[in-house]
Design goal:
The complex is a heterodimer of chains A (111) and B (117). Chain A has 111 residues and is mostly beta strands. Chain A is built from no helices and 11 strands. Helices cover 0% and strands 48% of the residues of chain B. Chain B is globular and about 45 Å long. The chains are: A mainly beta (111), B mainly beta (117).
Chain lengths: 111, 117
């Protein structure tokens, strides 16, 4: 089954680009990778989803290498309000409808 | 469009009591998922409904947990009897059914915070 790991925490300054990587070694062929942002006392909020190469939307970019064993969420020019926990979510593997959250990365943006 | 809603937002019960959590998915979403995070641990998958059918309940911790989704709309998660280790935050999510399995984007509710004393 897929296992996902992320760095526990990261610090950044306002205006910088932040890259958070999730390792998912056993991702199944058909599974997409989804990233979420979570603030205290709230549910995870969808940021971006991708299958391979690069995906970009109005808030983030997602980079997925050819082997798809990892993915990197890129947040351009972070602000204080981006301080949150970021999670990746992937399917648990072929033959299952189970999903696995990453361990979560606590991002702190400093002024 | 309303998002995923969960009720109650908080619940405090005593060990041995029963608690029922409710999740209302986004209208039209056939897929409904339950997750939970116990103190200090990761968010763990509990189960997945497609309409009223349980597609995968491999994450349910034991037979004290019962999830239902009658009519394929809202879902309930009952814990009976509750134990101390059941304390945590229970999240519900829903998604459309994509033509490609694995592509469904899950949208989460705010969670129910359960404390068992």
């Amino acid at each position: 089954l897929a296992k996902t790991t992320q760095p526990i925490s990261m610090d950044s300054y306002e205006g910088q680009e932040v890259n958070i990587t999730c390792s998912h070694n056993n991702i199944a062929t058909n599974d997409y990778i989804t990233w979420y942002q979570q603030f205290p006392s709230q549910g995870p909020r969808f940021i971006i989803q991708g299958y391979k190469t690069k995906v970009t939307n109005e808030v983030a970019s997602l980079f997925i290498p050819a082997d798809r064993k990892s993915s990197t969420l890129s947040l351009p020019r972070v602000s204080l309000s981006d301080t949150a926990v970021y999670y990746c979510l992937v399917g648990a593997g072929r033959g299952t409808y189970k999903y696995i959250f990453g361990t979560g990365t606590r991002l702190k943006v400093l002024a | 469009e309303a998002g995923v809603t969960q009720f109650p937002s908080h619940s405090v019960i005593e060990k041995g009591q029963t608690v029922t959590l409710r999740c209302d998915p986004i209208s039209g979403h056939d897929n409904l998922y339950w997750y939970r995070r116990v103190m200090g641990k990761e968010i763990k998958f509990l189960l997945h409904f497609v309409k009223e059918s349980k597609q995968d309940e491999s994450g349910m911790p034991n037979n004290r947990f019962l999830a239902e989704r009658t009519g394929g709309t809202y879902s309930t998660l009952k814990v009976q009897p509750a134990e101390l280790e059941d304390s945590g935050v229970y999240f519900c999510a829903s998604s459309w059914t994509s033509g490609r399995q694995g592509q469904e984007t899950q949208y989460f509710g705010p969670g129910t915070r359960l404390l068992v004393l």
